[in-house]
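Z., the sequence and structure:
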Amino acid sequence: MAHILIIEDEASINDLIAMNLELVGHTSDQVNDGNEALSRLQEQTYSLVIMDIMLPGLDGFQLIGHVDQNTPVIFLTAMGNLSERVKGLKLGADDYIVKPFETVELLARIDAVLRRTQRTSQIFSLDGTVVNLDSRVITVNGSEMEITHREFELLETLIRHKNIALSREKLLQLVWGYEYIGETRTVDVHIQKLRKKLNWENRIKTVYKMGYRLEVDR
């Protein structure tokens, strides 16, 4: 679990990010202007900062200079020109996401940055099943469980997006790749195998007419 600072002046976007961070197990502080953000950065330590560039008071390009060099930064902004992206990355941002964005993509980018900076635990435990996302070792009630490469990729995707409903089409994109040609039934078959192997029949929920969600107690 990471503690994340969200700096975004549009309340609906700020709240959307905070809500989805909470769903996957993170905590957050929310601010809507650069001056308040500066005060928070001086008072607290964060695992990650997500910030817009166009802000009241100090803008994102000014603010990033006040972020601790060991704290990763993701710019989330409508400023999508190549020159602005290059500037943001040269100033030290770890990622640069242009609005509008998909929530699933944002969570994946956050997870990737946190993994690179080693700010999140790579051990996931649920109902007697323990998954080491680094070594790819899985134990169920103390016994090691063998699963296929594709099953593990699907499992990891569900874990990293826990409590988020993912459509079959999105799972195909994330696990099998955008160029995969095949039926969404493939997802259903792999889900059934995971449920049985991990004893997660009541954890991997079917979302009616959509896809699946790994349900984890908050």
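The two ends are 11 Å apart (CA to CA). Residues 103-116 form the longest helix (14 residues).

Let me know what you think.
H.
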